[in-house]
Amino acid sequence: MTAEQRPRRVTSADVAREAGVSRTTVSYVLNGTPHQKIPDATRQRIMHAVERLGYAPSATARALQSGRSDVVLCLLPDWPIGPAMGTLLETLSTSLAAEGLTLYAHPRAAGRPVSEVWRSLGPAAVVLWDELDDTEVAAMRAAGIAVTVALLSPTTQRQGELLVPQQRTGRVQAEHLAATGRRLIGYAYPEDPRLKGFAEPRLEGVRTACAELGLDAPVVRTLPMDAEAAADAVRAWVAEGVTGVCAYNDDVALAVLAGTRLAGVAVPGDLAVVGVDDIPAAPFASPPLTTVNAEQGVIAQYIAALVIRGLSGKPAPRRPGSDTIHLIRRESA
Amino acid sequence: MTAEQRPRRVTSADVAREAGVSRTTVSYVLNGTPHQKIPDATRQRIMHAVERLGYAPSATARALQSGRSDVVLCLLPDWPIGPAMGTLLETLSTSLAAEGLTLYAHPRAAGRPVSEVWRSLGPAAVVLWDELDDTEVAAMRAAGIAVTVALLSPTTQRQGELLVPQQRTGRVQAEHLAATGRRLIGYAYPEDPRLKGFAEPRLEGVRTACAELGLDAPVVRTLPMDAEAAADAVRAWVAEGVTGVCAYNDDVALAVLAGTRLAGVAVPGDLAVVGVDDIPAAPFASPPLTTVNAEQGVIAQYIAALVIRGLSGKPAPRRPGSDTIHLIRRESA
DNA sequence: CCACCTTACTGACACGCGCAAGTGAAACGC
DNA sequence: GCGTTTCACTTGCGCGTGTCAGTAAGGTGG
Q: Which residue in A has a C-alpha nearest to residue B112's C-alpha?
C-alpha cells in the first residue's frame, strides 16, 4: 500500500541490466533477428533473465514502433447474437490467427459513438455489419486503419465491402416451397426493428424468387414472439390461401410452428414452414424444422481473405460461390 | 501505387504545423487540459486544422504514454456461444463504457496460446471463464495487467475471481421439480465435452439440492443431440421411475422433449422437464418449456463493478444476491 | 606492422503522445 | 522605473520498442 503503488512494468531494459548486456542485444535475441551472431552463452544468459524477471514485451510499444498492429476489430451489430454469429467469429478468428492477426469483437455499448471504439484500439482492419458513412470511413483511413470490410451494405459496393448472401437465403427458401408445389407463400417478418437490415434483403430474395417462378408476391406479416399472436397470423395466412411460409430465421419459424399447433393447422400438409440458421433447437421442433443454412465457415474464410489481401495491398479475392447456402430438409416443408 | 505506398498517418505534429503552433498547444486544446489559457482564436485555428487534415489521435501512442489502456479483454470460452452470452457481453460492454472502459471479446482461435492474445492487446483487465494457472496470472501481472476476473473456477477463490452461480441454477431446477411432487429426478448431461466446466457445477447443484430435500441422487444420462437417442434415454429414465428431468440447458431440454414425443411419454404428466437459459425457442416448444434463467444484466454489472474496483485498487464489492436466478414457469414442469 | 574482415556487441534515433517546466512579452502594483 | 504576476505559449523529456549505423576486440593475410 505504501511502497509500491503500481508494481512497475518489467521492461526489456530490466532484462538487459540483469543479463549485463545492452537493450539492443536483448531485442535481437528475443526477436531472432537474422544476420546477427550472438553466442549461445549470452543468449542463455538473457533467456534466464527473462525467465527470472517474468518479462513480457509491451504490445503497445511494439505497435507504436512498428506502425502496424496485427489487430482486427469486429464491431458486432446491436441485434441479439445467436450461435450462427458465434461460429462465424470463431472461424474468422482462427483464419486470421493463421496469418498472425488477432481478432477482437466489440459488443456495441448503448449510446457510444463507434469512432470512440476503434480509436481506443487502433486496429489494422475493421469488420462490421452495418453500413457506414463516408466521413467515418475517411476518419478511419486517417487513423491508419487500412481495410474496412462492411457486410450487408445494400447501397454502394465500396472498396472491400461484401454483401453476405442474404438474398440467396430467401431465394433458396422460396424455391424449395415452390418445388414442393406451394403456389402462394407467406413471409414471417421479425418483430425486432433492429433486425430490419438483415430481414429486408432476405425478404427481397423471396420476392424476386417468387417473381421469377411466376408466383404471386409473398404475403408479408410481422410476427410477434408470442404463440397466440402467431396463431392469429397463421389463421390469416391460411384464410388467404397461403400454403407455405418463409420465416426470417429459425426462432421466428418456431413461433410460426407454435401458432400452427394452436390454430390446428397441419404442418406441412396445410402449411409448410422454412426457417434460416439451423439452430440447435431446429431438429427437435415438432415437426422437425426444415431450414436454410449458410456455411459460416466459408463466409468467415472469405472475410479473412478479404482482410489479409487488403492489408497486403492486393486486390480482393472473388466472392464465394453460391454453394455456401444449403437447404436442410426435415419435416416441416 | 508509386508515390505514396502507405498514406502516412496524420499526427498531431501535422496539425501543429498547419495551425502554426507547437504540438503541445494542440495537445492542450484537444484534451482540454485545465489551468491552461488558450484564446479562442488559436483554439479555432487548431480545430480547423484538425478538421482539414482529418486528424485522429493514435490510441497506441496514447496508451504507451499514459501507461494505462482503458481496454478490458474478455476471453470467450471455446464452447458454442448462445444468446445468453450475447446479452451478457452487451450489458458488460455498456457498464464498462460508463466508466470510460472499452470491452473487447476474443473468440478463441483453435490452437493458439492465450498468452499471445492478451499480449497483442495489452489490456488493463482480463475477464475469462476458464480457470487459469498461477504462472499465467504472474505473467499477466508482469505485463501490466492489473485485474483478472475469472469466472467459474471450481477450486480456489483467487483475487477477484467470481463463481457465476451455476450451482444455484441446478438447485432451482431441482427444487421446482421436488415442489411439484417429483421424487426421483434425472439429469440430462450435454454431449459436448467442452461444456463440462459449466455442466459439472450445475449438476452439483442438483445433487446437493436432492440430498438436502431427502431425495435419491439424480440419475445422470449424457444426451446425444439426436431425437432417437433422446427417446431411448427418456424410456430408460421412465423405466427407472424418474418423473422429472433437469436439463443442462434449453437445447438439451428440447432434445429431451423431442425424445418424449417419440417415446410416447406425456409431459409433464409422466415426465417433467426443466431447462436453463430461456432461449427464444423455449416458449414455442411443445409443451412450452419451463426453464431457469440467470439475469445476465445483474451478473454483467457485477463483473463490471469487480473490474472497476480492481482497477482503482479498491476491494471487491460483495456478490450479488441469490435473486439473480429465476424460474420461468411454463407447461413442461 | 598495417590493412582488412569477422564477431559481438552498443549508441542513438524514431514511433506519437502527454505533461512538467520554462520563457518571453505584456499587464499590473506601488 | 522596477519587481511581480498573468498570459500564451514552447522546449524537452519519457513511455518501451525495433533497428540502422557504428565500434572495439580479435583474427588473418601480406
A: A97
* Nucleic chain C contacts, protein chain B, residues 60-79, CB cut-off 7 A: 61-62, 64-66
Which residue lies nearest C16, CA-to-C1' measured? Answer: B61
Which residues in chain B touch residue A144, judged by CB atoms under 8 angstroms apart? 9, 58
pLDDT digit string, tens, across residues A72-91: 999 888 888 888 888 899 99
Pairwise CA distance, residues A75 & A108, whole Å? 7
The pTM of the full predicted model, rounded to 2 decimals, is 0.85
In a 10 Å sphere around its CB, with 0-12 CB exposed, 13-18 middle and 19+ buried, how is residue A111 labelled?
Answer: exposed
Domain check: are B224 and B209 in the same one? Answer: yes
Domain assignment present for residue A4? The answer is: no
- Whether A112 sits inside 8 A of B97 (CB atoms) is yes
CATH number, domain containing residue B156: 3.40.50.2300
Assigned domain for B1 exists: no
> Could you tell me if residue B3 is inside a domain?
no
Is residue A182 domain-shared with residue A289, that is, in the same domain? yes
Set of cell numbers at residue A112: 457510444
In a domain, A275, yes or no: yes
DSSP letters spanning B189-215: EES-GGGHHHHHHHHHHHHHHHHHTTP
Per residue in B247-295, pLDDT (tens digit) is 999 999 999 999 999 999 999 999 999 999 999 999 999 999 999 998 8
Residue-wise pLDDT for A271-325, tens only, equals: 999 999 999 999 999 999 999 998 888 888 888 888 888 777 666 666 666 678 8
Give the CA B310 to C1' C17 distance in Å.
26
CB distance A168 to A322 below 8 Å? yes
Strand C nucleotides with an atom less than 7 Å from a protein beta carbon: 7-12, 14-21
Q: Using the structure, give the distance in angstroms from the CA atom of A37 to the C1' atom of D26, rounded to a whole number.
A: 15
